């Protein structure tokens, strides 16, 4: 059980492995499944940063991960739920971004920033908390200001 939700043993094991990896003194590159979970948890963290985890943001997260990982609706919802548990247990945003930065080439990280902007903009409001976290996340992912700005503009148009 993580938080107030009951998960099957294999999910608990996967979440435990990811959290241990994220909090290791010298994190190792993430396996594909762990990278998916870390990215989704980062999107959840951004959506929750303004203390208003809106349905539009949840739907946007599921659309992003379904398209990115070629998942069906149920699989995307399950991954999002797992990521919510990881996000709730892992207080350190820096570790998420470090793990993603180490596992993902620059162009994909730029797309991660675009996806993150899509989540931030999904509810139609940009809270100061979301903007501040987005600036930090883009910098920690090693995405320069220019590319982050372009990503935000693309996200606003979609």
UniProtKB/TrEMBL annotation:
Residues 36-153 form the Co-chaperone DjlA N-terminal domain. CDD domains: terB_like_2 (cd07313). Pfam families: TerB. InterPro entries: DjlA_N, TerB-like. It comes from the Bacteria. Coiled coil: none annotated. This is Co-chaperone DjlA N-terminal domain-containing protein. It comes from Sinisalibacter aestuarii. The lineage of its organism: Bacteria, Pseudomonadati, Pseudomonadota, Alphaproteobacteria, Rhodobacterales.
